[in-house]
# Entry
Amino acid sequence: MYESRMVDRATVPDQSERERILAEAGYNVFNVPADAVAVDLLTDSGTGTMSTEQWAALLRGDEAYAGSRSFGELEDAVSDVMGFDRIVPAHQGRGAEHVLYGAIVEDGDVVPNNTHFDTTRAHVTEAGGTPIDCPVPGAMDPDASGEFLGNLDVEAARDVAAEHGPERIPAIVVTVTNNAAAGQPVSIENVRAARQLADDLDARLVIDACRFAENAYFVSERDPECQDASIEEITRELLGYADAFVMSGKKDGLANVGGFVAVADGENDLFAKLKQRAILYEGFPTYGGMAGRDMAAMAVGLREAVERSYLEHRIGQVRELGQLLEAAGVPIYRPIGGHAVYVDAAAALPSVPAEKFPGQTLVCAAYREGAIRTVELGSFAFPDTDRPELVRLAVPRRTYHQEHFERVADAFGSVLDRADQLGGLEVVTEPERASLRHFSARLEPVDAAFGRAD
Ligand code: F0G
# Structure
């Protein structure tokens, strides 16, 4: 249970205003001002509400350039909660990715991952590698059922290694939870198998731990061996198989900014190399792009993120949103994931052909209908992959209430009632780097009225 002690007033533009905003934004909701959004489900990253304890820690932040006390607090929290004693801080998750993948991936390398998130994919590519997704069968099927659909297909990853040669595999990466595959969890058994594969290939095992606490909660619910274990124990067991992990504190660090790479004890050379890269790209290794106060707030956030009562509420809110959407007739991905509900846009908007971006069309229609902001994670965001047309409704942590979710479900229900009027969208301009096009591309509707005959 929470009490709100600070509020942010929201004024919602009316529908004709929203139509103008959408057109001006090039039908890309990343260009919509946040003040014109009623319920912002674009991301769960850095958008949560901090606790009074975090604000108190923030005020006590130590801004020393070197050896900041706040860095020590962050080190202690990572050690206690996640079991790693050595960290290299970064300004956020992608900064940590740049530090790590730039150090371990070389030209011509191939990196298997259960599913690369967009920035991970881009950083592996930037370092000269080829990212290859190895989700388990059914992971991309909105109607599949399974307890750990986020798992890495270890045999598929082994085949990738056999095809390219084990010497070309610098690391096996496991992303927990699997954000790009509907936020599904990864089992401890799967991470163990990934560890074995990494050993067989003489490669590293890297975990993308952004949503480690939500993953541990699912493990505690679904793995009979872990029923008596605490969330911290599950976390430490799962991460303990890795040689290094990448963390965005904007997710399960319950912070508004920040991230880090954690390195296992045996990895002395890697740790030294990462610190040098951090100095070059992020900041001195005891702040790495974060203010001292941000490290202090994240240190508290990491401890709060593994409290069972917090996670019950958190995962419960996401489930509640999913159930309201289902009741409004919206086809959602089942089982419901940890941080977000994923809508199957191809099923929601059958009149929109695949090449006219049903996902992005749904995102824009939901904004027009109810000032709801969501994000497309289908063929628009991941153009070179074979993915279902998913729209993600990510729930910021400790921020919204039931009436917000009711508004969202109403808006999506209304869009679906008039689904056959929508023809879809076409790309007008896009950046050179296709893997990041969804952030800045501009689109226009195939029909000038964008499905509004009335
Ligand atoms: N890895 C995963 C699995 C992520 O989901 C993200 C960010 C990152 C790395 C990068 O972290 O944002 O701190 O630089 N995901 C956000 C999202 C942006 O909306 O899912 P970051």
